[in-house]
Amino acid sequence: xxxxxxxxxxxxxxxxxxxxxxxxxxxxxxxxxxxxxxxxxxxxxxxxxxxxxxxxxxxxxxxxxxxxxxxxxxxxxxxxxxxxxxxxxxxxxxxxxxxxxxxxxxxxxxxxxxxxxxxxxxxxxxxxxxxxxxxxxxxxxxxxxxxxxxxxxxxxxxxxxxxxxxxxxxxxxxxxxxxxxxxxxxxxxxxxxxxxxxxxxxxxxxxxxxxxxxxxxxxxxxxxxxxxxxxxxxxxxxxxxxxxxxxxxxxxxxxxxxxxxxxxxxxxxxxxxxxxxxxxxxxxxxxxxxxxxxxxxx
Length: 298
What we know:
By secondary structure, the chain is of the alpha+beta class. Helix content is 24%, strand content 29%.
């Protein structure tokens, strides 16, 4: 709550001490559509484009559980040449693949459908997405835009502002794709540090929400390993086994040298008291958090 009495979800979540680890949405495919103008609250769905085209793209994305995000360069700069679209994919074998195209007319967006069926190309640099979707949530704009500015100055070709990525209360949110890594509660200096370290394949527990190819308790387990044993590469730890007993999980991680070869992590989930979780929320909701209760090297 600000001095003027206005509710900001990120301020409230920080005051409550909401846990970051274990909050990255599950998924391994992203569809990006460059749209430099203002974004409607519901993103791609709300664009004034041919409904048939939007329906075709949406159904194709839904088939592979892809998230569709609108993107633009910081400051709503006009596109240099045709607007771009992309399909980013984190393969089950850990390979990062991307397909890029351009569009001037709405019907050219149907190229996304074919790209969703294709494997994509290797070798592209990662894409750094900063949620700055103000009409969806005020905190995403207030906190996201300074982060987008700082990152764009450092990596102008990698960084895009994007629509809602989930977890408004953790703004500013940054997603590195197709790596599938979510960071939250960033400001301009910490975002530059986090992305710099990420690009050097040194992921830190600080600001880490999770890896999108893992489920929440697994994300929390990996974050605790990073916190305990130091920053490590994106694939330094693999989940070997996950056992659940009601609100408790026992997760076995396998580490690559020089990290511990085997870790047994116990995680417990908690349902918080209902509260407003977004700036525009009209009803209280109960968030689930994941707390690591023990970690033992095998």
